[in-house]
Specification:
- By secondary structure, this protein is α/β, with parallel strands linked by helices.
- The protein folds into two domains: 117 residues, Aspartate Aminotransferase, domain 1 (Alpha-Beta Complex), CATH 3.90.1150.10; 245 residues, Aspartate Aminotransferase, domain 2 (3-Layer(aba) Sandwich), CATH 3.40.640.10.
- Helix content is 40%, strand content 14%.
- The radius of gyration is 21 Å and the shape is globular.
- The two termini are 37 Å apart.
């Protein structure tokens, strides 16, 4: 079994000036961390600004008369891009919110088993542990090896952890720390066959790897639009299969909870209004999809192929510089790649909840390179994770390799 990626030819891995000029990144920083928060292109930000001006010119008209139709328009276009159905898709602020909405909506009994891997993103793993503690359910952890040799190793440990008590599996599509593209289509299909629902944490997948939500047929799928789709921050989605929507409620219970409307589902009504906020990030998603598509003649297939080729080439540069073997076959790589680096000298935790290693600060302060150093599986063990986006180029990773030689 092999994972599938676009195969159309991409342009040179040396970034062209036009691609760099449309992102508002600091030119003094070599930014190799698109995966953490993304960066939104200037034309997309301009479109969001126009929406905000429209909102402020006549707020009542915008929120009361126009917003639902605008959100429908954005949902339809996002669903088409994702291969899903608009009536099954709602906007949420981020994938962590999507995971929480599902987990905190479901009823679990003492003894129920909730399956997760040891590569799951910390915030979402915390949500799973929280729900398990409150309900008496048991969290079962499938340990995926890293370095990793084959797809079969993943399938064996995940499916081998399933029992008759397994109620739900929370699985990454693309792991955050290790940058692995998991065989999610196979896993969902096998779990469905065993009557186990899957909640896919697809934070990184949209815009990085091919995605068809209808064919995937997961009970729940949540993903970010602010990463590889390059929409503004605060744009994400939750896709819930029609037969599971009656149980899923938003994290914020608002006016929709007692709505008498019958023209649309309660699922859409409740998630469509959770109080006053700024919805322009979600409304900008179609613009981001179309703009990034326009940056390559081959559209999104070529964008994904280019970024993957660049990530693979960058990984080869780093592994050669550090004299380490590639930690997994190429079929597991999308636009992220993680490489083991020597252990940290100290496992002392940082005050910052997201970054723990002083090496990341030194790379920025001394070399102007922004790249995450991730404690995994636990301090002092650590990984360096690179991202590849259209504004990146091979010389940037060569610069990183040189810096690491001096600092490690």
């Amino acid at each position: 079994m092999r994972l599938k990626f676009p195969t159309k030819k991409s342009q040179s891995l040396v970034t062209s000036a036009p691609a760099q000029s449309v992102w508002p990144l600091d030119p003094a920083v070599t930014f190799l961390n698109h995966g953490s928060f993304g960066s939104c292109p200037l034309p997309v930000l301009e479109f969001q600004r126009e929406l905000r001006e429209r909102m402020e010119r006549q707020p009542v008209k915008f929120f009361v008369r126009d917003l639902e139709e605008l959100l429908d328009w954005a949902r339809i276009r996002l669903a088409k891009f994702l291969g899903g159905m608009a009536e099954n898709l709602v906007f949420v602020p981020n994938a962590t919110s999507g995971v929480n909405a599902v987990l905190r909506s479901l009823d679990f009994d003492p003894g129920d088993e909730l399956l997760v891997t040891d590569h799951e993103y910390n915030a979402c793993r915390n949500a799973l542990d929280y729900v398990a503690q409150r309900t008496g359910a048991k969290v079962v952890v499938a340990k995926i090896p890293f370095p990793l040799g084959s797809v079969e190793e993943i399938i064996e440990v995940v499916m081998g952890a399933v029992t008759w008590r397994t109620r739900l599996a929370l699985l990454d599509h693309v792991t955050s720390q290790t940058g692995l593209v998991l065989p999610i289509e196979f896993l969902v299909r096998e779990l469905n066959a065993r009557n186990v629902d899957t909640l896919v944490d697809g934070a990184h997948a949209p815009g990085m790897v091919p995605l068809d939500l209808h064919s995937l047929n997961a009970a729940y799928y949540t993903g970010n639009c602010h990463k590889w789709i390059c929409a503004p921050k605060g744009a994400a989605f939750l896709h819930v299969r029609a037969d599971r929507q009656k149980d899923i409620r938003p994290l914020v219970i608002s006016h929709g909870a007692n709505s008498a409307r019958t023209d649309r589902s309660r699922f859409l009504i409740e998630f469509g209004w959770m109080g006053t906020g700024d919805p322009t990030a979600a409304l900008t998603v179609p613009k981001a999809i179309e703009f990034v598509r326009s940056l390559r003649p081959g559209g999104w297939d070529e964008v994904m192929k280019h970024n993957r080729d660049l990530a693979l080439a960058a990984r080869r540069i780093l592994c050669a510089a550090l004299d380490v073997s590639t930690p997994c076959p190429e079929e597991f790589i999308g636009a992220l790649a993680s490489v083991p680096i020597p252990d940290a000298r100290s496992a002392k935790p940082s005050k910052n909840p997201l970054y723990l290693d002083p090496l990341q600060d030194r790379l920025l302060e001394e070399f102007g390179i922004e790249v995450p150093v991730i404690p995994w599986p636990a301090p002092p063990k650590r990984l360096l994770r690179i991202s590849a986006q259209l504004y990146n180029s091979l010389p940037q990773y060569e610069k990183l390799a040189g810096a690491l030689k001096k600092l490690l």
